[in-house]
Specification:
Blueprint (H helix, E strand, L loop, with lengths): L11 H16 L2 H9 L3 H19 L4 H8 L3 H8 L4 H16 L7 H40 L1
Length: about 150
């Protein structure tokens, strides 16, 4: 994933990729998931994280605060607060960016998707195997019944 996402995006597509990675990377952090579970204002929280991620991605693309504010439909003060880390959302997104900068863009929780797909496939194979064995068992029972009636 890190080869696809630039930490200094150029152009809309790379800005959106960084924004998405920042949001996902922040949302999937254990402490953020726990905060979201406990929060009565989940939607507000997720919205703040999304705005902070969008603002940081655009700042890294060298957009001005006023351009970012206009594009995101937020006040310049809100954007400045997120980018300065004065909001919890801004702090968390900034930490995620710094982690990406030092360790590469990695969203570890998404690795579970591959594992889930593999487990689904194994489950389907086991179900098919079970059905096959059940059919064989029925066949054996029928043959045994026939043998018993012949005796």
């Amino acid at each position: 994933m890190s080869s696809e996402i630039s930490l200094t995006p150029i152009g809309r597509e790379s800005i959106h990729k960084l924004e998405s990675a920042l949001l996902a990377g922040t949302l999937l952090r254990p402490e953020v998931l726990s905060m979201l579970k406990e929060s009565s204002e989940r939607l507000t929280w997720v919205d703040s994280l999304a705005v902070a991620a969008a603002a940081l991605a655009r700042e890294k693309a060298k957009m001005s605060i006023s351009q970012i504010a206009e594009e995101l439909g937020r006040s310049e003060a809100t954007i400045k607060n997120h980018l300065a880390g004065k909001t919890k959302a801004g702090q968390l997104v900034k930490e995620t960016y710094e982690k990406f900068a030092s360790k590469g863009v990695e969203i570890p929780s998404l690795s579970f998707i591959d594992e889930i797909e593999s487990l689904k496939k194994q489950l389907e194979e086991e179900r098919n195997r079970k059905l096959t064995l059940e059919k064989k068992l029925i066949n054996i029972k029928e043959k045994l019944q026939l043998l018993l009636t012949e005796i």
